[in-house]
Specification:
Blueprint: E1 6-12, E2 25-30, H1 36-44, E3 62-67, E4 71-75, H2 86-101, E5 106-114, H3 121-132, E6 138-142, H4 149-163, E7 170-173, H5 182-193
The structure holds guanosine-5'-triphosphate (GTP) and magnesium ion.
Guanosine-5'-triphosphate binds near residues 38, 54 and 146.
């Protein structure tokens, strides 16, 4: 699959603000700063589709993008950012739950983890939540440029082990910096949409 058109549709903090349920959606979830927005820009070949920031906590709303006029990519707000207040993290939980638990056109949630680190307790919690809701199956290991070829295999095994991923799950190393791994991920996304 090649993405030739990307159009930002809207930001939402509650259900009433979502676009209609008429098109399939694939969402991206992960810790703050893991590289969700960068990955969306890589996939869409558009440097400015989603806002990237070096300070964590940039994406605080659910952002919908129309892709090739036929499906949507959804950038979810990151979790695990220590500096947010309690009320902000409660808002986050409510916002995520509302979207993830009751969106009939949501096909899958691609979970991002940083290839350099063992997945955190929150990553595991998110993965379990996705599995419970039938939304797990594709994990992206971001910032693959930060580890050597040699270390990559070990890092991927640790991610599989810590998340306790299923037999049929895929874990795809991707680098937004070096622009690697996106074709395999786009292939998986294409299969989801068929
Ligand atoms: N080296 C390297 N840095 C990356 C890569 N992807 C993202 N980054 C950097 O990581 C930081 C965070 O990237 P974002 O894409 O904004 O992360 P995010 O997950 O959307 O963050 P929030 O919106 O805060 O949840 C930025 O400084 C990016 O330049 C990558 O593949 N390699
Ligand atoms: Mg972001």
């Amino acid at each position: 699959m090649k993405i030739t058109r990307v159009e930002f549709l809207c930001s939402a903090v509650k259900k009433g603000q979502y676009p209609a349920e008429d098109l399939p959606e694939i969402a991206f979830a992960g810790r703050s700063n893991v590289g969700k927005s960068s990955l969306i820009n890589l996939l869409t070949n558009n440097r400015n589709a989603a806002k990237v920031s070096s300070s964590p906590g940039k994406t605080r709303t659910i952002n919908f993008f129309l892709i090739n006029g036929s499906f949507r990519i959804v950038d979810l707000p990151g979790y695990g950012y220590a500096k947010v207040s309690k009320s902000v993290s409660q808002d986050w939980g409510r916002m995520m739950e509302e979207y993830l638990s009751a969106r009939p056109n949501l096909k899958k949630v691609i979970q991002l983890v940083d290839i350099r680190h063992e997945p955190t307790a929150q990553d595991v919690q998110m993965y379990d939540y996705l599995r419970y809701n039938g939304l797990s199956g594709i994990v992206v290991a971001t910032k693959a440029d930060k580890v050597s070829r040699n270390e990559q295999g070990k890092a991927l095994s640790l991610i599989a082990k810590t998340l306790n991923t299923g037999e049929s799950d895929v874990i795809i190393p991707v680098s937004a910096l070096k622009k690697t791994g996106q074709d395999r991920l786009l292939g998986c996304m294409e299969s989801l949409l068929q």
